[in-house]
Amino acid sequence: MKPGVSRRDFLKASAVAGIGIKVSFLTSPTQARLIETPPLPGPDWLKADGRPKYRLDSIAKVTGAKTFSRDYRARDLDGWPQQQAHAFLIHATKADQTYDGIDLSALGEELKPDRLVLHEDLLRDGIAIPVPGFYGDVFLVPKGEVPRLLGQPVALLIYWDFARYDAAKRLLRFDDTIVRYGKKGPYTHPQHYGAARYVRIGGGTPDAEDRFSPFKDSVIYGSFAGDEPVWPAAGQGDGMARGMAAAAEIENDIAAAGEDALVLKRDYFSQSVDASAMEADNGNVWYDATSGVLHVMVATQSPYEVAEVTAILVSKSRFPLKEVDLKVGYTVGYGTKDHSIFPFFCVVAGIYGEGRPVRLANDRYEQFQMGMKRHAFWMDNTLVVDRTTGLFRIMTGHFRNDGGGRANFSFSVGFVAATAAQSIYYLPRSDFSAAAIASRAVDAGSTRGYGTLQSMSATEMMVDEAAELLHMDAIDLRLKNLFKSGMKNSQGAIPGGAQRNEEILLKARAHPLWARRTERKAAFDAANPGKKYGVGYGHVQKDYGTGAEAALAALEFDAAGRIKFGHVAHEMGTGTTTSQAVMVGDILGRVPDETEFGKVRWPQLPLKTTDEPYTLSQEEEDKRKQDPRWTPRFTSPMSATNSVYYLGHATREASRALRDLAIWPAARSLWSQGIGGGVMAPFSVRREDLRLARGFVNAGGLPPLPFEKVAAEAHRLGLVTGVSVHTFNRWQWTEAEFNIPEYGKVKLSADALALKYGDGACAESKSLMTLDGWHFVERAAVYYPPVQRNNAGVTYYAPMATLAEIAVDTATGDVTILSHHSIMECGTQIVPELVSGQIQGGIAMGIGHALKEYLPLYEGGPGDGTWNWNRYELPRSKDVAVWSQTAEVLAPLSETDPPKGIAEVVMIAVVPALANAVSHAIGKRFYQLPITPEKIRGALA
After folding, report:
1. What is the DSSP letter of 142?
2. Comparing C-alpha atoms, which of 39, 67, 11, 568 is closest to residue 299?
3. Which residues fall within 8 angstroms of residue 445, CB to CB, at 6 or more apart?
4. Is 505 left (phi over 0), alpha (psi -120 to 50) or beta?
5. Which residues does residue 800 pair with via DSSP β-bridges, in sequence order?
6. What does CATH list as the number for 10-35+68-187+281-361?
7. pTM > 0.90: yes or no
8. What are the tens digits of pLDDT across the range 52-101?
9. 10-35+68-187+281-361 and 195-272+374-545+794-940 share one CATH topology?
């Protein structure tokens, strides 16, 4: 769903400049142990049923061997100099006065920086912001200009030794005389980032053709007049004009609604928050001018983007560059390390290290000051409900999100919020718009939830209030308006798979917390004077993916049956290394013996891309796909809840292909040996009878075969013994046909394929394995989902509901969470323990957003450099009902259900559940988050 930053120019420029790009993950014994080799941490990793007892990286974690990018210095990195230099930034804390320079006299001669870097140095040396607009327009504030945003860096100070660096940094912290300011000036933040509108008028019934929808017709894009979005004129012309006519019709119908309808209009606000990842932004960069190689080690969720943009950044400067060598370690960021500007500040610091590696690492004050935030949202919602039937007639929502002083993904976050606002409800007519606003605030970006926490929380609070005004049970009202399988979303697209929210609602309605809430409240309130009991419900469904997901996976086995597995995915706390290995075991009957995650070298898949999956026209894509080596995108960053389903799809597709091309024919060969066709001849055994489990191959009552024996037979016969695939998804999977020697035409849900053949393969087959021992099979035909499918907005959802039980102290306003119960549907759980961990951690984050966490956007906010966890309140175990929380997950419809991405949805439902619980407790509704004790006391006064 993120409109990708096109990297076409990056790739062209790096190719023209002849710059090599290497991306690799820290793996040697002297570096981070990203994954243990072999991957089985101990003989007890797997239970008797083949399921894992603990995460694949657990031993490394508990023994301290699992390390993060932040843990490394130059001496820990192979081939780097031993001396480590250090750097820090000085930030502007005003955005309404000119910056007139810095005064470092407080440092004296002893603590003066060994290298001071200002904007003028960067300008002289040709160092400019890469991707202007997305990352702003300048790294450091030019002298005589007003800073673009609060907390914007004005100077970079580099020290050759740690002691002087540390002393200087401590001395300058909180000293507001260091940065000199001049005359007052207007705000200089960028132009606003964009406006989009999604209007749908159905055809009268859910299955009828829409009169207008984004998927069928067009998304509407707007401009700005001042701070207000300006939309195209309504008319019968192009799609946007017709869309605005549809919007006008909806607006007129709201105005004309009679007494038979409840017209509920409410404004909501969701605050800016800090994701508070324990690892603050950091990087270590060594520029070796002699070799022309820039060595980078940085914490990032999007390593390919960092490497490519770095190449452009340096290639345009006076510093010679032949290669960017990027090392990536474990990191965690909840989205805030995805397309962040911070890695490029690290690159700038390294360039001025005069041959020394330079480490730039935020402490917690600095992370609050410049780390990307979750967007603040203002939401103007209207819901029209038929008073007799309780059916929703119309819903509109006009949203404004503040992206701060750098664009980043603000526009994308806004329109994702708009497309998610319908949540679990079917809306016959809807009009959702988003306007992404630029301001002097610290920039906001791709933070967990991606705008949907804000918009869906408001929807759930609104539906709850509508039920109260209609004197209806809130769950019954939800059941009446449920989005069901085959219905269209607010973009006019039909989501994939079964929509199972009705099962969740029925379970929630029967749960004691809901069914007995009235009598429980009466008893609690009577027994606890001064306290009020409440139960609230929240129910959402969250999209996962970006609409341009790409992945690579490789599987092979040797004649002894040892399985080797490689994947582009890397670990950032989700447990993806564990789940991907388990997926292999689920299909092949045993987990890999050797793994490589974060695999960046794929010579067997020599693909080409301009990485324009969102912006390339259909005509241009049709031309490009004639090249069997072209793909819309090579790979995706670790974001958007994409690991288990999208990245896992490559794992599953490679596993299935290896099973079908190798395991089945090799097993059939073994079963057919002997007089008269062996043990197989008397039976009718088909491919669908094949079962692989616990290291054995079974089918239709035939003798079980050890995997090792089948692998040996596959090699003897020269069958396929290795499969590499590349996959691409545009709210639908790409499919391609491949002509495989000795097999014929094979259709896969992948757009690229490479194979290895067994030891006994003929000379002709072996001669094809020319790419690092692989045979790249050029596709015979390919089907890419049409570009118009971008307008679907989303077709993949994961739902979750939460019941929250609270007590409100009417004297202090404190909210105590007594218990909470969640119900989720996530398809097949690959590793249930990981799902449980996501639920518990996500709910804690949601509780913080609902009740505690808050950052002022402008003056007095984190841009002033004084914020830390002493001022910013995070929830602790006592705040999240850690011992009285429960959860259940719906069983899959069958063992063939795919897994769903759930890392974001788990944090959302608890937010409106708590807001609705407070309303139930004290009879007062709140429309602005967080709901603090001060707000509650004010409402009760």
Report:
1. P
2. 67
3. 335, 336, 338, 339, 340, 372, 373, 408, 409, 410, 413
4. alpha
5. 540, 824
6. 3.90.1170.50
7. yes
8. 888 877 777 777 777 788 989 999 898 999 999 999 999 999 999 999 99
9. no
